Amino acid sequence: MRYAGRWRTRVALGVPAGLAVLLLVVPLLALLLRADWARIPSDLATPTVLPALRLSLTTTTSTAVLCLLLGTPLAWFLARSDHPAASWVRALLTVPLVLPPVVGGVALLMTWGRNGLLGQRLAPFGVQIPFTTVAVVLAETFVAMPYYVLAVEGAMRGLDPRLESVARTLGATDLRYLRTIAVPLVLPGIASGLALAWARALGEFGATITFAGNFQGRTQTLPLLVYVELERDPQVAISISIMLLAVSVIVLGVLRGRWLR
Q1: Which family does it belong to (predicted)?
Q2: Of 122, 158, 173, 198, most Cβ neighbours within 10 A?
């Protein structure tokens, strides 16, 4: 009787679990099955792919640098602050995670556009950000920064607070403690956060096309090129998609020990 009940429980849970796996795996399998593997090298060498690849690598690397320089201090303050305002900052930080990307693009346009909150103050100096490569970096940073900050904050929260107490006893300032003790100890978390933010920036579409447009050689990244090629030559779109899928799998492999344990 007990064996029969255990079997029914496994079936009741296993069927929806199996369906969940199929919903995620079958589309990826379909992408691999529909690919013309002999064409992939030539498709990735076409004149439209190489500029998009170069632009994607440039903008995502710039995004990772911005996340490192700006996100690390923010993660530090969030990890060590008990002020009620910190919880609100953390909540605001997670908004881009659930916000539709196109809404993020509209928000960026309302901020940096010619009549935007900050853009109208830059316009008299001849500075125009929308529909430029800078706009691509801002859009990618907007969606990728939360991933980095939350990952690094989690790593910093795991630090033994006695280390900071000892450092203060020895006369170390907050900046010196952060530079010489905290950051070296959380380097795996920083590396994981950077990889996650870089991968998220590489796949960004909605905010980029809304705020930066889709101009070849200037703002057309790989996801935007997939969108264009899907109507012009679907096989090229499939080849680029497989390349992006491979990058995602590699990033997951890097993060496996930390995130998927």
Answers
A1: Belongs to the binding-protein-dependent transport system permease family. CysTW subfamily.
A2: 198
**DSSP letter assigned to residue 125:** G
- Kind and range of the H or E run holding 106: helix 101-112
d(CA 197, CA 60): 9
Find tokens 């029914």 and name the residue. Answer: 8
Predicted confidence at residue 235, as pLDDT, reads 93
CB of 113 within 8 A of CB of 119? Answer: yes
Kindly give the interhelix angle for 133-157 and 49-66, rounded to the nearest 10 degrees.
40
CATH superfamily ID and name for 48-211: MetI-like (1.10.3720.10)
- The set of long-range contacts for 29-35, using a CB threshold of 8 Å and a minimum separation of 24, is 31/238, 31/241, 31/242, 31/245, 32/242, 34/238, 35/235, 35/238, 35/239, 35/242
Cβ contact 104:96 at 8 Å: yes
Q: Provide the 3-class DSSP secondary structure of residue 37.
A: coil
| Per-residue model confidence as pLDDT tens digits over 82-108 | 778 888 888 888 899 889 999 999 999
d(CA 71, CA 194): 10
Contacts of 157 (CB under 8 A, 6+ apart): 79
Tell me, what DSSP letter sits at residue 123? G
